[in-house]
Amino acid sequence: MKNIKATVILLTILATMSFHSCKRTLDMDDIFEVSTNSVSLNYQGLLENGDHAQIEIGTSGTWQVSSKPEWVELSKGTGDRGRYTIFLTVEEAGTMEDREGKIVFESLGQTISVDIKQVKKVEELNVSPAEIAVNIRGLLDNGKAPAIYISTNSDWRISELPEWISVDKTEGKAGNVSVILTVTKNNTGESRQGSFTVISGDKTEKVEVEQDLTYIPLTEVTIITGDQRGAITSGEATFEVNSIETWTLASDNWIHVTPNKGDAGTTEVTVSLEPTTVARTGAITIKDADNLTTVVTVKQEVLLPDDGKAVGYLYYADDFEWVRPYGGEDELLKAPTSAGHGKGFAGSTKNMHTTGPTGSATVSAATAFANRNYEDINWNGNAFYYGAHYFKMGKTDVETGIKLVSIPNTTADRSTNVRLTFNATPARGGSSGSGFDDVILMVEIEGPGSVGIDDKSTKYKDDLDIQIPDNAATDWYWIEKSVTLYGITSETKVTIKPSTKTLGGRYNRWLLNDIKLEKHSKVN
After folding, report:
1. Domain spanning 314-521 has what CATH number?
2. What is the predicted pLDDT for the residue at 197?
3. Domain ranges of the chain
4. What is the pLDDT of residue 48?
5. What is the CATH number of domain 125-211?
6. Residue closest to 366 by CA, chosen among 379, 355, 381, 350
């Protein structure tokens, strides 16, 4: 047992002797350490978080930096024993390639290397907006001067400016910056285009500028309506003039506006009208120092009281039976020529322009038409026909409608609200089972009154759909339509015609029957 213990002690002594023979020259109390073995920098020479890089060194002896890249500056390169924080200053990298190197620290006869890497600069340039549209004054729609916003990591400059554009900054350093443009008033009489270039390093961005002849109106008011007493009934008696320059205004002699001139800024003006016995239209013309003009239309209506007739009173009705003697067919009732087809297809109708007296009709078709206060709104189109008891209007590439040039049984110096009712249908092809034209109608008035809305200004309703889906088995049929006309008088004219919303292309043909005008309500 004693021999075993002796052997263990001997092995321990030998192991200890072996350890000390492999130890470096540092004593057990010597210290030499560096906080990192690598540093990665962006092209600006900073860490990813934007801070300057730093290295901590601790040693129990003197130390020094024995080598480093020439593009790296250190806040300290030598020192005595202790702990130090060394800050790295690295200049901005170029755009050609990344660069690498080593910082070598030496102390206590030993060296420690720190790898340092800096990525190359990748140039960036963003300019917005790339396209700018300004009005005649050189301003945006919001009345402000245009601007561009530059974001870049290099010095920048602006070049190739058109002579009619200037900027508040022509060059600058890396970063984010706004540049305000001054665009001179466009006196060329036509729109003009120009461009300039923002250059940053090897990057370029072009900015396009277009200047038209539009401008922000000097007032948002476009129309003012008054009655025969001079009271304003629609629009504002008082409104604002907004101008960036001095301004003046002029008006018809029955329109009075105060004040009639002003300085730059916002000015409130007041309108008054002289009484009248006849309807009239005039204008307020506002002009600024640049000779830019805004016109406010002024309408003075003679608003007549209700005619006193009872609701339901029939002013006018026409079932077109007077058309029968002229010999047109009833196309809607034509028997199909193929099994499964619906009734009706195009047949023989008579041209209203050229058909003379016939049968019990003692005057020409055109004379009979005019005697009932009707008018073909496209007379030269020669596309108005008589069916058995209806009008047929339009032909290939030609459309027309009918105008009632006066409303019978209306009372002079009075007005009324009426309901216009009529039957209509789209034309159909000339063979059994044919398809229908795609037609949408509109009702429009001239003179006093409004259509569909009691606002004294809406003059048409353009969405009266009379389309019939194409189906060979469908019987051709009439479609009843109606619309209310408010405040009409003996001077009001009523037109029914294809709407601009019609999708029929070359074929906007349609039929009309059974017109009726009856009292809808009393005028307020």
Report:
1. 2.60.120
2. 97
3. 32-118, 125-211, 223-300, 314-521
4. 87
5. 2.60.40.10
6. 355
- For the cut 60, the answer to whether the pLDDT of residue 4 exceeds it is no
For 32-84, the pLDDT digits (tens) are: 999 999 999 998 889 989 899 999 999 999 999 999 999 999 999 999 999 99
Decide whether 125-211 matches 223-300 in CATH topology.
Answer: yes
Residue 189 CB: number of other CB atoms within 10 A? 7
Give the count of alpha carbons within 13 A of 279, CB side only.
14
**With pLDDT > 70 as the criterion, what percentage of the chain qualifies?**
94
pTM beyond cutoff 0.70: no
- The CATH number of the structural domain formed by 223-300 is 2.60.40.10
Q: Measure Cα distances from 345 to 325, 392, 472, 474 in Å.
A: 21, 13, 10, 11
475-489 mean pLDDT: 96
Question: Tokens 């398809």, residue?
Answer: 435
Token representation of residue 297? 């239309």
Q: Rounded to whole angstroms, how far apart are CA atoms 251 and 517?
A: 40
Query: Which backbone phi and psi does 370 adopt, to 5 degrees?
Result: -65, -35
Distance separating alpha carbons of residues 498 and 307, to the nearest angstrom = 31
3-state secondary structure of 423: strand
Please, are residues 518 and 315 in contact by the beta-carbon 8 Å criterion?
yes
Select from 87, 35, 27 the least CA-distant residue to 60: 27
CATH architecture of 32-118: Sandwich (2.60)
d(CA 402, CA 378): 9
* pLDDT above 80 (res 288): yes
Q: Residue 31 — pLDDT band, cuts 50, 70, 90?
A: very high
